[in-house]
Amino acid sequence: MSSPKSLLIRRARIILPNGELMIGDVLTRDRQIVEVAPEISEISLATEVDAEGLTLLPGVIDPQVHFREPGLEYKEDLFTASCACAKGGVTSFLEMPNTRPLTTTQQALDDKLERASQKCLVNYGFFIGATPENLPDLLLAKPTPGIKIFMGSMHGQLLVDGEIALSAIFAKGDRLIAVHAEDQARINQRRQEFANIHDPAIHSQIQDNQAALLATQLALKLSQKYQRRLHILHMSTAEEAELLRQQKPSWVTAEVTPQHLLLNTSAYQQIGTLAQMNPPLRSPHDNEVLWQALRDGVIDFIATDHAPHTLEEKAQEYPNSPSGMPGVETSLALMLTAAMEGKCTVAQVVNWMSKNVAVAYGIPNKGAIAPGYDADLVLVDLNTYRPVQREELLTKCHWSPFEGWNLTGWAKTTIVGGEIVYDKGQVNTQVRGQALTFL
After folding, report:
1. Long-range contacts at 167-171 (CB < 8 A, ≥ 24 apart)
2. What mean pLDDT do residues 189-203 have?
3. Which of these, 151, 365, 405, 437, is most buried using a 10 Å CB contact count?
4. What is the pTM (predicted TM-score) of this model?
């Protein structure tokens, strides 16, 4: 796997920006797509990729991940996580601030950007985290896709859970605010009610639908009061989806994870604490309502909330077991398998995992296969099914809540900036992504 300046992908089933399918060729040069056509003449010095029978999609942009560096590299680091991204067809990611130290200052943001420039095989961006005290940093730090606020499910500096403290952030500046919407007061109350229960299934009752709804209602109220750009992270409940269906200003967006679409509380019986995440898994009814909201455009896109923990940590008795699960390697295959089952179309998956993310975060030249767009691409095989196997995963934690699921749409070849970073099971560790920009 060399690093060509020109790449010619031949005979691919190309998903065009309008959602239509065209069998044809794509030529890239110097990190960008320069031509898309039914047939492109032979280009000297171009490396050719025979894509016959494969489907070409824009690379996935995963807008919510926790890659654990710095400070928690024993769970994951930027190198291992970006290898997992490449294998999963994820060509760009936006990472969250709850590392050690927290990403709450320009200095901490700069440190992450420097680490990523040395280690990341794919493109990268990093959120700035809100605390009750760091408003100047929230206004000035750059480059960043936005401000991350933990309204709940967090302790220490990153918890911002009172309306007064939240209002101070919403009232100043115009940068996007992304919220983890769970009501900490309700969670605290229910933790006391359900104390000394060690069945992990109780997690979904402690951090219940009402806890999520209360926080989303408050975030929406403040967004409307201050006309502030708001994004609701990992929406998990039918109640939140119906709230947005009735009351969603044009400047508000929302996302959902594959877990909240495809897993529910029955997973606790099957995989125990491996099913534990924040916000928790919900009921089959919530699954259905979230799917419909996604198809209807009430929910705008998909994120994984990739949040790895070691199997040893997960083996602890609830509530000592940590919340979170990995996802970047399986998200695209999960969604494409859903498309093959008729839950959605491949074109919708492209919108939810690439185009809509780029639009929402103002990431230029990403999310479509067209001249002038960046050559971040993934070739997938929609004809072959293969199970999720623990031993094949590249994430450092080496497990998946979807282990054993038989999926199609696995990445065969992943391309970042016109360079092949993953091909037929092999990662090219010499490729480096670039820092994302945000308009």
Report:
1. 167/222, 167/225, 167/226, 168/132, 168/135, 169/130, 169/135, 169/138, 170/222, 170/223, 170/225, 170/226, 170/228, 171/226
2. 97
3. 151
4. 0.97
